[in-house]
């Protein structure tokens, strides 16, 4: 209906078509709110457009239904049940009115939303469709123990066939695990090992420094003199 527009542009376009509301049409909206200031300062001021010129082929009953549904004041706006009985659509209304829907029960929302209560509500909702989780967690079918619902740390291990097969498979040690070499990595390791050997000092054999002899032939040992 409003392609590429945000909510501000939508309200402005509605005000451009319906006209800026009068004070009597905004009695339900407090004057110190941002919404009231927005309608008075931002929305375009005017009387709106004539719906009969916008929809020249529409009948008078159709235009009357549009005006009744497009009221700024929600108290004066036509309700859904009354709109079904309007002259423009009353021939679609069944001869035997359907039974009215039952009022929605919001009592489930009457609790303080703490972490534990939300977890308990979520657990109860899951248990309605999967009652087997109560037996899995050691809970009675009618409720939770005094200690509360099982937390993540208290959850029992998964004993599915996949999990059991994984447990039955012996775990290899680090030395037994096969390592797939990366191409070019062995050459880099060989070069690093050669550099390490060239920079590593010879191991200490326990011979005192004064008794060591040079291994190069033809070079006199001057330290014994």
TrEMBL record:
Keywords: ATP-binding, Nucleotide-binding
Biased composition (Basic and acidic residues): 153-166
SUPFAM superfamilies: Protein kinase-like (PK-like) (SSF56112)
InterPro entries for this protein: Kinase-like_dom_sf, MAPK
Disordered: region residues: 134-225
Organism lineage string: Eukaryota, Sar, Alveolata, Dinophyceae, Suessiales
Protein name as it appears in the record: Protein kinase domain-containing protein
Source organism per UniProt: Durusdinium trenchii
């Amino acid at each position: 209906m409003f392609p590429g527009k945000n909510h501000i542009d939508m309200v402005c376009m509605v005000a451009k078509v319906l006209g800026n509301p009068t004070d009597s049409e905004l009695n339900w909206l407090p004057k110190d709110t941002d919404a009231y200031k927005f309608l008075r300062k931002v929305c375009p001021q005017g009387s709106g457009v004539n719906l009969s010129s916008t929809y020249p082929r529409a009948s008078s009953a159709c235009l009357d239904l549009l005006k009744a549904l497009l009221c700024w004041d929600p108290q004066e706006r036509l309700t859904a049940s009354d709109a079904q009985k309007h002259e423009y659509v009353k021939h679609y209304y069944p001869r035997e009115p359907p039974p009215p829907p039952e009022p929605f029960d919001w009592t489930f929302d009457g609790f303080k939303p703490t972490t534990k209560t939300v977890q308990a509500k979520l657990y109860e909702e899951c248990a309605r469709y999967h009652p087997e989780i109560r037996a899995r967690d050691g809970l009675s079918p009618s409720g939770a123990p005094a200690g509360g619902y099982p937390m993540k740390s208290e959850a029992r291990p998964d004993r599915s066939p996949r999990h059991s097969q994984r447990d039955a498979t012996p775990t290899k040690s680090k030395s037994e695990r096969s390592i797939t070499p990366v191409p070019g990595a062995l050459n880099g390791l060989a070069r690093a090992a050669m550099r390490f050997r060239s920079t590593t000092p010879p191991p200490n054999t326990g011979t005192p420094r004064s008794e060591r002899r040079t291994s190069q032939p033809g070079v006199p040992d001057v330290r014994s003199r």
